[in-house]
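Appendix B. Raw example, untouched.
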Amino acid sequence: MSQEWVALVASGTVSVAVAVAGAVTAIWIATLNRDTTLQLAREERKQQRLSSAYIEILSLVHRIGYWASRVRPLMDTNPPQERPLLPSPEEQARMEALVTAFGSKEVRDLKTEWWKEIAEILLRDEDIAYWQKDGGDDSGGEQASWKALRKHQKAEPEMRRALGEQIAKELEHPST
């Protein structure tokens, strides 16, 4: 009888141990799954915010690029074309904030280089307006401003393209 009792207790103990091990394993797997699910959800939210920020940045970059390409047309029409409007300072400040908050070092650097071209276009546009206001320039200042404007208008799309390609790379989308 004592051997039967020992066998019964031993088999009961093993059964309890297996049940406890199974429960602990189930809890561990559930915790691991929950942690993995939470991490994946965080990563998805982060990627979505980055994507939204980069798309907004690119939208404004292209609007400014359109302005830069049309600010002083080679030939005008009759009646003269309306000058495109540069996006508002508020929109430009938002773009800067998004680049600062979300942009990688590469995106920030490319945006800075692109903006240098835009700043030069703005300055040349102001120079030309100044020379034309005074009835033209015989000293060559207006001509030099036009030449510099065209140089920067030619460089700007390449800088814009490089910025767009870097953003596409970071978002893991193929660029065209």
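End of appendix B.
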